[in-house]
Amino acid sequence: MIALLLRDLRLAVRAGGGFGLGLVFFLIVTVLVPFGVGPEGALLAQIAPGILWVAALLACLLSLDRIFALDYEDGTIDLLATSPLPLEGVAAMKGLAHWLTTGLPLTLVAPGLAVLLNMPAGAYSWLLLTLLIGTPALSFIGTFGAALTVGVKRGGLLLSLLVLPLYMPTLLFGAEALRRGAEGADNTVPLLMLAGITLGTIGLLPFVAAQVLRINLR
Amino acid sequence: MSIWEYANPKKFMETTEKVLPWLVGLTAVTILPGLLWGFYLTPEAENFGSSVKIIYIHVPSAFIAINAWLMMLVASLIWLVRRHHVSVLAAKAAAAIGTVMTLIALISGAVWGQPMWGTWWAWDPRLTSFLVLFIFYLGYMALWEAIESPDTAADLTSILCIVGSVFALLSRYAVNFWPQGLHQDASLSVDKAEHVADVYYWPLILCIAGFVLLFVTLVLYRTRTEVRARRLKALEARERMA
Amino acid sequence: MAGGGPILCLFACAAIRYACAMELKVSDLSCARGGMPVLEGVDFTLSGGEMLLLRGPNGIGKTTLLRTLAGLQPALGGTIIMPPESLAYGAHADGLKAMLTVRENLAFWARVHGVPDMEREVVRALDEFNLNDLADRPARSLSAGQKRRLGLARLLLTGRPIWALDEPTVSLDTESVALFAETVRRHCAAGGMAIMATHIGLGLEARALDLSAFRADPDSCRAGGGSVPADAFFGDEDLA
Question: What is the ipTM, given to two decimal places?
């Protein structure tokens, strides 16, 4: 299974465009916001937590349809399904690979973009922490969504429609934890909820995704 | 004879054909008096004015909007466990009705909210949950449309319905974290302590009963259509093979 | 997640099975495609060293049968008896990654199948299909025939005795077909088995099974309740 993870990471690096695209998208969305709402620092600082979380979520969404679609087209999924690897493990590794190539880099560059939105310096650690805790949930929910739409030609838009409502609790708790943290308020509960969602999705959704893949293969 | 007999499409078609005319009649004699009673024979509330009468549309449609999803959840589980085609087709049939009911609840709520709260829309937990529910309905129907093989579509939409239910509940809980809330408490509750006034209560109950009957009738009609469409697909597939 | 232990153990068992008598026994098998039954009553037994060629017109269900044997889709009825994890499936799509080199592609599948002494096995597979000169080229630069050879080389790295192959010779030139036939012959000589859906002879001594004989009768679709997984559910009567 480690082989699968390494292969996916290697492919992500070699494919060039795909890897950096999410990051660039994150940057662009963040840059667009001041153009839309005006350059006033106080306002930007106030909405920065929400903007950064929404932008990270959209950047994550962008690369979801690649999780299974390519492997489905070239028959890799068929061969993996007949290999000794359990399909549940395959789904989990796919989610992990997606997080390592999307969620983690997004988290790491987020403080840089927070500067652009005039976020108070004390909030950076909360930004890193909430994204670090929350983005794995985005990848694993996305893996489930990608498994659902793997058999649909040009399923990208459908995938977004299915996955976005599933993202809502993660987004709400993540942004709420960050906002409260940035204001110096107590954010234990949303932070724990966020961690709970992440653990729940990592623990359960690979099993559902594997079942969905089996249904799509037959 | 077990209840599962009715999951046989043939049996289902026979039974519903006999039952449906009665159901239509029953719906009509429940919903019409309910609405008329509510609209014309109840007093205007002192602090609400005549806008209070939207309650006879708003509350029943919201009730159906949520329970239609619950029904889909149960039907999806039945399909996944017992593979009864009628069950999953009924879930498919209920989705469109649930969507419309959600939309009616949202719009009637907005129309009511405008004079009451001075705004068409607020990001209140209840309102937000309904918007989320609406998007879930759209996703569920879109997945049905996108997948060609009927059995695959049935399996995948059923799984989506179950996973979606978990996340919908999470969303419902999550929005409570927002500090604001405009919506009044539940209009009805079992212990009858926090009800709307008695004079509005009985016509409201009648309207809800009418909407439930309307929902059942429409779901049965649509399920019949889905069964026929499914049979058509089966016949076409057989034609291609022969 | 899974350690090397159980996988290694499985392969040790596979090696033993390989040597002793093993067989693939298919009885009264029915398969469906897209919910419609296409084949029924398929019966055959294949023992170590034998190969079977599936024949029949397009659309008869050769691919469906192979996918059912591989466990990718459930059978409608009947039984398939074979040792667990003993079948390697190969189809039109080879599961190759254009961005990886030939060697990396093979090494990946060798690792997935937990092949011990991976390096040597990969070199052997490259040799067998005459891919040595291409080993460090990315798979995207290969011709269709070369890709096909790479896809077939993967079979050697699964370490599995039963090969279920769907049109393995598509886009191969005569020379490569001979190469492939020789590989299959050697595989079977070592006690392996092969089931292939193919139109050409390969010059191998093989039994042929014409699937036309097992075409499912569309009118046999029963009307009935319960959990029949096929469209057969609806029967013939008019549903008003």
Answer: 0.91
